[in-house]
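Board notes, transcribed. Complex of a protein with NAP.
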Amino acid sequence: MTRVRTDLFVSLDGYTSTTDNTPSNPMGVDWGRLTKAHTGTRTFRERVFGDTSGAGTTGVDDTYVASFFEGAGAEIMGAGMFGLHAFPDDPDWKGWWGDRPPFGTPVYVLTHTAPRPPITMEGGTTFHFRTGPIEDVLAEATEAAGGLDVRVGGGVGTARDFLRAGLVDQLHLTVAPIVLGRGTRLWDDLSGLDRTHTVTTEVAESGTIHVTFTR
Ligand SMILES: NC(=O)c1ccc[n+]([C@@H]2O[C@H](COP(=O)([O-])OP(=O)(O)OC[C@H]3O[C@@H](n4cnc5c(N)ncnc54)[C@H](OP(=O)(O)O)[C@@H]3O)[C@@H](O)[C@H]2O)c1
C-alpha cells in the first residue's frame, strides 16, 4: 500500500532552514552542520556522488539514509526545493539536482508558474510541474508510484502543507544536535502529530536523534 513519507532535517530547537547563507557560500555553514550526519554516510556518498570507495560512516545514520532511498515510486517537491525561485526566468533551468538526479522516479514540482513541459533527466527522473491542490497532485503521484511510496521531499513550506492537511503517513526527522537560534520553524501552528502517529526515537553514534512518526 502506498504511504506518504517525508524526511526532514531539524535542529534541536526546531529549525528546518538556516540563515547564514552568503553569495560565496549559498548553503551556509549551518546547512552543512544540519545535514552532516546524513551526507557523511556511506550510502549517501554512493547514491548521490557515485562514490563506490566504501568511504563514509556506517551504523544507525546510514541505516536511515538507506531506507530514505528505498521504496519510493514518486516524489513531490515545492518550487523552492527544485530551484525555480533561484532562476525564475531561465526556461532551460533543470533544477539543482544535476544531470542524474537521485530520485529515479517521476517528481511532481508544485509551482504557480505551471504549465511547463516535463523535463526528462538521466536515471529515471522526470520532473512534472503542477499547480495544486496538493490532494490532486498527491493522487496523481500515488497513481504514478504504482504501489510504492510517495515521498514529499520538501522544502519546508511544502512539507508543512502536507503535514497540516494530515496527508503524511510517516515523518522521519533527523534531529542534529545543534542549536540554530533562528530560521524556519517546523512545528509552528502544527500540533497533534504525536496523537495521530506512533512516535519512535533512536540516537545514532553521531549524536543525531532519529524521530519517526508513523500512522
Ligand atoms: N530541513 C529540511 O529537511 C529541508 C529540506 C528541504 C528544504 N529545506 C529548506 O526549505 C527551504 C525551501 O522551502 P520553501 O518552503 O521555501 O520552498 P518549497 O516548499 O520547496 O516551495 C514552495 C513553493 O512551491 C510552490 N507551491 C507550493 N505549493 C503549491 C501549490 N499547492 N500549488 C502551486 N505551487 C505551489 C510555490 O512557488 P511559486 O508560487 O513560486 O510557484 C511556493 O512558494 C530552503 O530554506 C531549504 O533549505 C529544508
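The longest strand covers residues 4-11. The chain has seven helices and nine strands.
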